[in-house]
Specification:
It is a single chain. By secondary structure, the chain is an alpha/beta fold. It has one domain: D-Maltodextrin-Binding Protein, domain 2 (3-Layer(aba) Sandwich), CATH 3.40.190.10. The chain has 5 helices and 5 strands. Helix 2 packs across helix 3. The radius of gyration is 17 Å and the shape is globular. The two termini are 32 Å apart.
């Protein structure tokens, strides 16, 4: 096999495995009646456009947070911060509680029937319910 072809195959394999690891699960409390959600709906809760759920956010510096907002809202972290600064300044909304890890988000959602959060799909267990998977 030619070196270029081997490199290309290795690159595709790396992209596929990285993509598979990057799946994000939007989670709620198992007692929450919600069963499914679209990305646009999740965006509303995490961007302050709806107060139906209590959102729990990941740490500002975490890779999952940047990936999550890019995928559900098409925004980078600085755009998300600007959005929240405007909402807070005008008194229209309070930003989501920022937690340190997926384990903390999962624990907070499991303890709040109205809670919503996002974690790595691989971290999901029976303490939470997945209502959206983001590839």
């Amino acid at each position: 096999m030619k070196p270029f072809l081997r490199s290309a195959i290795a690159g595709v394999s790396l992209i596929c495995s990285t993509h598979a690891m990057a799946e994000i699960a939007v989670i709620v409390n198992p007692k929450n009646p919600a069963t499914r959600m679209f990305s646009e709906q999740a965006s509303q809760f995490f961007m302050g456009k709806s107060s139906m759920f209590v959102p729990f956010d990941q740490s500002e510096k975490s890779a999952i947070r940047a990936d999550f907002y890019q995928k559900i809202a098409g925004k980078d972290i600085s755009q998300v911060k600007a959005n929240w600064a405007k909402l807070v300044f005008t008194g229209k909304a309070t930003p989501p509680a920022e937690l340190h890890s997926s384990a903390d988000v999962k624990k907070a959602v499991a303890a709040d029937v109205n809670g919503i959060g996002y974690i790595e799909k691989s971290a999901v267990d029976d303490t939470v319910k997945v209502i959206l998977t983001i590839p």
